Each structure stands twice: as structure tokens, then as C-alpha cells.
Amino acid sequence: MNIRTLQPSYHLFSIPAIFLLFGTLLFFSGCSRKEPALSQTVSGNTISENQTDKNAQDAENSAEGESFTEKELTEGNVTLSPRQLSSYGKITDCSFKEDKETLSLSLTLPDIPGSDDALIYLFAFETYENYDNSHCFDREPIASAEKSTSCELTWTYGEGQLFQQFVPTLLLNGKYVPLSTGTYICNPEMLADNSVSYPEPKSKKGLLLDPQMLGTPLLTDLGVQYAIYNIPLSHIIGETTNAAYPTISYEYKGVSYKFNGEIIYSYDNLFTYLTNSGIFSTAIILNDWNETYPDLVHPLSRNKKSGAYYYAFNTAEEEGCRHLEAIASFLTKRYSGGKYGLVSDWVIANEINQHKIWNYMDTSDIELYAAEFEKALRIFYNAAKSNYADANVYFSIDHDWNNNKNNNKAKFNGKDLVEAINDAARLKGNYDWGLAIHPYPNPLTRVNYWTDTYDKTMDAPLLTLMNLRTLTDFLNQEEYLDRSGNVRSITVTELGFSSTSGEKLQAAAFAYCYYIIDANPYVKAFIMNRQTDSPDEINQGLAFGIYELDQTSKFILDVFKSIDTDSSKDNLDFMLNILGADSLEEALSWAE
């Protein structure tokens, strides 16, 4: 596709202008002890004949119900180097217990390794911190337990641990050596107050709203179920200049972070209005350049780039990471369904496979890029789920799925990036992130997208409406399933069709699109771009709106209103006639 050089069109309207008018507890825990395995070699370390005899005796003792002595556990059954130990253990779970105060980490080992004592120790590290195999930890362990091939370490949840990674270790030659990669809490939703519940949306119909139409029949008559808005960080952080709306101070880990009271007030009114109107809100978090707060920009993104609209979050340094945690905590708590309304869905950054424009980082290393982004994604996920258990947290990609065959350093394939982020997430504990997609036709000005031929394999170059199975087949693979074994939440957060080729063609393209998405059990919502035409988009030959600039309605208006109602079939014949299909079933079969 031709990379769009405009800023996301959500910024064309001023939300504030409209809505200001609206008025370490350490303790030893028990282990589920299993008998040490009688392995002869482990990672090239040979066990002597005497050791084999000892293993046999250990097994006999275990069968008789006798405990292993501290000396036996200290010596272990295998001797491993720090490097071998670093991947020897496997963390199978790290979660809150029902009391919401106790955390439990489950660890399995193939056998009992030797070390300085009989214990496994657990350490907590911040998101931005790294550790290596020979690291001598400069902190106290938060929990410990006797060695076992199946062990549970428990401790009391402490402030700030929501964003920490937990690393099991052994004490070897006076140094703490990791037994596995660290992991994060995997069920932060346990912390959420579930006293407030909301009805399910009536349909998948969503729209990028025109703030000038809020509170008017031009919106209320549309029956919109989902709305989407941007939250650029530079807009909300920092002190307020309007005395009528004082600066909001938010205390986080001993630091007071400042939020612009005037802008936050406008979002308060926006999300309250949408919630009261039965519309579910999606917020896109965007890290735009901010001279006052450079700590929020990743170190590899600080060479301010011409043509880059947004920048990678700083998850590599303490100051930036803490600031991001505070922002995520503040926003997701404020908009968790209380007095300021509900944001049910959060999209972290925009079209991140276009990493030189929409989430700038000066790198061609996709694994590095994905690992750094995934840390920001998890911060927002844990924050959102801990405040509203039913929240969804997504990252977005455009339609460039697998068409970068020439090692184009200006972008990554969407497919490769989803794979890399999934790998980074599973490495430190799988969680239920979702995927927001923008499956535009190619080029963007094309409206009769159904007339082209599409590759429907998982290696398709482009991801569009006509080959959504490309994505759903990909995410149906076992290694991409969520924690419950289900396909992850997918949502279409941006997609529109221009009326420049004819208003009826635009309406038919929308209707066909809606029916395709409505029939797909894996796609949660379709948020159409947009309610009102954008001048900048019109300059590109794109008139996506339901309304023209002067608020004159187009032919698509009635189709949009009725598409998810009992009268939707009234508009079906004109759509089928334009598509050249005899029935809706036939038309839907083209996209299977």
C-alpha cells in the first residue's frame, strides 16, 4: 500500500473545545515435592556411579515417605553451570490466589540441581531491568522454598509488583543464578472491582465520531455501539495553564506525576457521555514527540525523525518506564466505569509494523523492536485489567501482512511482527492481548474490493476483508491462543470506503464489509472511518464520511443506521445488485 503521510485523522477535531462546553514480605513456603529423577547425564554433566546409587536410595526413601535432608537437597542430583541453569526451570504459572493478596509462582525442574543450599529463591525485577546468567543480585529475595522438581513459591503482593517480573534463582558459588526467564503476573484482573457491570453491545457497529455532532440526532440516531478516540500523551501530561481546571497530581511509587486538568476534564466528559449513551469507548494511546518530557521516548527513538508522527515508548530506562506505568495506572483507573465513564478497549500505538512513521524506532531488528514494544503493551494490559476485568488491550497493524519481500527497512511485515510480539509475550508469561487491524483495500481509494483476487493462505501479502481467514487461521494456531486456549480478540479499529466513486458504491462496500465481519466469530467489532469527511483525506481522493463537510448526509446514512437492525434486509437488494451476487450467502462465500 502507499504509506499514508497524514497524521491519523482522529486529530482533525478538537475534543477539548467541544467538551469544555459540556460542562517484601519474605517467608518460606511449602513445595509439592517429587522424587528426583535418576538421570545419568544432564546437559553434558555426567553423574558418577556413586551418585546413581544415591539417586536410587533417594527414590526408595521417597517411596517410603521420608523427606530429603538439607544436605541431599543442597548437593542435588545434577551439577549445572550458570548458563545451563538459566533455562533449566519452567515457570508454569504466576498468579493471584483467591484472597487477592497472595501471589503464587509454580516452577518445574527436570531434576534437583546442586547449589550452595537447599533453597530456591525468588527475586522481583522492574520492567526496564535486565539480568544475565552470572548476575549477583543486589537485592533481597521476596520468597524462597525448598528445592523440588515441582515447586510453588508464595508471597504477599506488594505495591508496584503489578509491573514487575519475577525470577526464580539458586545460590551458586555465592551468587544468585536464574533458573528461568522472568515472568509477570498473568491474572491482574483479580484486582479489579467487579461490582459494576455493563450490557453486551447490541452489534459490532462502530464509528469514528465527529465531536461536533455529539449530543445531537446526527449521532444518536445512528445506533452506534463502539466509538474510538486518540489520547496523545503530550496532550494529557504536564501542568494546566487554565486556572479553572487545576493540574491533577497523581502519586505513583513516591513520585507526583502531573496531568493537564483541562484536557483530562474534556476526556472525562467525552467518556461519560459515551458510556451514558450505551456506546463502548476505545482509546488509542499515542506517544507523540514532547520536548518537555523526553523521558517517554525510547532511547533508540530520540533522533527526532522527519515524517514520524509517533515514537516508541520508553521501556528501557527507569524514569521513562515509571512515567509510563503512572500514565497507564492513572488512565485505566479513571476510565474503569466510575464517575468518569468507561473505556473498555485500549489500543497501544498505531500500525506499529510501520515503525518508521507511526511508532518510530531507529532499528531494523524486529526482535528488539517487538520486545521493547511488548513491555509497553503488558504495562497497559496489567493496568487496564487490574482496574476493569473485562478490558481488552490491543496493538494495531495495517494491511501489509507479508508483502515486504525486499527487506524494506521502512516497515515490518504485520505477520512477522505479530509472531515476534507473541514470542516476546510467551517468553515472560502468556496473557490475553488482542489485535486491532486496518484491512483497507489496496489502494485506499479502491471501493469495489470484491472484484480482485486474493491469496487466502497465511502467507498472503495483504490482509483485507476478502481474506480475513489469513489472520484467523494464523491466530488459530496453538502457539497463538490466549491463556484459556481461545483465539485472541480481534477488532477492526479503522476501515472506510470513499464516496468519490459514487455514494451507492460506498454504501454497498460498507454493507458488504459489515456482513463479512458480522459473520466472522473471531472479530469483535468494526469501527468505520468516519462520521464526517476530513478535508485532508479529501485532498487524497478519500471521502470516507457518512456526512459531507457541511453535514449533508450521503446515501450511506440509512444503510449505516439499519445495517444491524431488523430492517437491514431492506437495503440488501441494492448491495447484491452492485456486487453481482444472487444472495447474501453467495456473497459471503467469496470471502471464505
Number of domains: 2
Structural class: alpha/beta
| Helix amount | 25-40%
- Write down the Rg: 27 Å
Architecture of the largest domain, according to CATH? Alpha-Beta Barrel
N- and C-termini, Cα separation: 23 Å
Record the strand order, biggest sheet.
11-12-15-17-18-19-20-21
CATH class of the largest domain: Alpha Beta
Mean pLDDT figure: 89
What is the assigned CATH homologous superfamily of the largest domain?
Glycosidases
Work out the strand percent.
15-25%
Low-confidence stretches: 1-66
Largest sheet: 8 strands, parallel, barrel
Number of helices: 16
- Per the principal axes of the C-alpha atoms, what is the gross shape? globular
Number of separate strands: 21
Task: Kindly list the characteristics that best describe this protein.
2 domains, TIM Barrel, five-stranded mixed β-sheet, alpha/beta
Would you mind describing this structure in some detail?
By secondary structure, the chain is an alpha/beta fold. It is 26% helix and 19% strand. The chain contains 16 helices and 21 strands. An 8-stranded parallel barrel has the order 11-12-15-17-18-19-20-21. Strands 1-7-6-9-10 form a 5-stranded mixed sheet, with no helix packed on it. α10 links the parallel β18 and β19. α9 packs across α10 and α12 packs across α15 (572-579).
